[in-house]
Amino acid sequence: MNLFKRIVSKLTNQPEEDEKQSLEKLGDSLKNADLDYKFAQLFTHSGGFFNYCADEAEALQTLNQIIRIEGISHTFCWDKELQSFLNVIKTPYSSELEHTNDAAFITCEYLIAYDGRIMLSHNNILHYHSSRLPNKIIIMANVSQIVNNLNDAMGKIKRNGNIKNLTSISGSQSKLDSSNTNTKLFLLLLED
């Protein structure tokens, strides 16, 4: 890639062509792989931190490690089931997004194996724009939420109905609407 294209891609906050091609090559090489393996590879390749958890006890232990290592002191978490995890490890949280939140602990709609993205909706982040979320986002999902591609996810969303404000995030940045490139994205993937 020539120097001019690199400068423009940095200024416009677009991934460089080399990065896009690298992700596409990895995706092509994994086209016959299991969906969960393909998703994990592409998610981590794009900068995300993938954590497979065999059960809720392991998820709780991993969550506690992330919170301790990242120095998280106050979390945005409106989901009652996820709040019970935070209660066990004694991590303060608020059910509304506040400026004091240094992390978000949320669920997601789908995990898209095609490119390692995570689809979110108002069910996961309420009425907040994804760019307002803290720089550290911890997502808990199940293996059954992995779909092959965006079309599969959209088809399931249409069947379920009443899901709005869709966005997707991948690795270290949002693909659709976030300008924050310093986001750390952690995924706790639970076996169903």
Q: Describe the strand arrangement of the main beta sheet, using strand numbers.
A: 1-11-7-4-2-3
Oligomer: single chain
Mean pLDDT: 85
**Content of β-strand:** 15-25%
Helix run count? 7
Number of strands: 11
Radius of gyration, in angstroms, nearest whole number = 17 Å
Class from secondary-structure proportions = alpha/beta
Give the overall silhouette. globular
What is the first-to-last residue Cα distance?
A: 44 Å
How much helicity do the residues have? 25-40%
SSE ordering: HHHEHEHEEEEHEEHEEE
Poorly predicted segments: 173-180
Largest sheet properties: 6 strands, parallel
Q: How do the strands and helices of this protein lay out in sequence?
A:
Elements: H1 3-11, H2 17-29, H3 35-45, E1 49-53, H4 56-70, E2 75-76, H5 80-88, E3 93-94, E4 103-106, E5 110-112, E6 117-120, H6 122-125, E7 136-142, E8 146-147, H7 150-160, E9 167-170, E10 173-174, E11 184-190
Parallel strand pairs: 1-11, 2-3, 2-4, 4-7, 5-8, 7-11
Antiparallel strand pairs: 5-6, 6-9, 9-10
Tell me briefly what this model is.
The protein has 192 residues and is an alpha/beta fold. The protein contains 7 helices and 11 strands.
